[in-house]
């Protein structure tokens, strides 16, 4: 199965809408968490060229590094620490235009300038987070939040629903 997520569209909303149309069949019916998250990283990286994209998964009392694309990253993050740990603790998306202004930001890469983190919530419990970093300030906005939350909702439905 060869799928290309590259797009010539310039409008961000249209690019995300096109991405979702292509992404849904890619993960449909697949239940292997690591495989689905790995392909999600690859698809988002190809579609949007994000500086760093990956998942941290809840394991006992920490977030553990999962599939990602980009430079090496932190292995573990405590609940409430940094942007990822805050998204986990608060169970809500964190949109950070300037990571240097975020209290307790964990700098896995000094090149990271802005970040968005979307929690994956199943049955009222955070299972992990989608973490995307940019090497530019204020890269992410409400459009990114809206559509990345849709991507995560699709992931949660595919991976964690037992219907």
From TrEMBL:
InterPro entries for the chain: GAF, GAF-like_dom_sf, Phosphatase_reg/MetRdx
Signal sequence extent: none
SUPFAM superfamilies in the record: GAF domain-like
Stretches assigned to the GAF domain: 32-163
Pfam families reported for this sequence: GAF_2
Family note: Belongs to the free Met sulfoxide reductase family.
Protein's name in the database: GAF domain-containing protein
Organism: Phocaeicola acetigenes
């Amino acid at each position: 199965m060869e799928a290309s997520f590259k797009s010539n569209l310039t409008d961000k909303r249209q690019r995300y809408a096109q991405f979702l149309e292509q992404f849904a069949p890619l993960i449909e019916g697949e239940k292997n968490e690591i495989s689905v998250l790995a392909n999600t990283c690859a698809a988002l990286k190809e579609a949007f060229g994000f500086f760093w994209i990956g998942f941290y998964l809840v394991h006992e009392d920490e977030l553990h590094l999962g599939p990602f694309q980009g430079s090496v990253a932190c292995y573990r993050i405590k609940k409430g620490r940094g942007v990822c740990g805050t998204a986990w603790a608060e169970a809500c998306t964190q949109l950070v235009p300037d990571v240097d202004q975020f209290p307790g930001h964990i700098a896995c890469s000094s090149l990271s300038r802005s970040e968005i983190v979307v929690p994956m919530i199943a049955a009222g419990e955070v299972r992990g987070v989608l973490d995307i970093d940019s090497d530019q300030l204020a890269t992410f906005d409400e459009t990114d939040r809206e559509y990345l939350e849709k991507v995560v909702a699709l992931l949660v439905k595919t991976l964690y629903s037992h219907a």
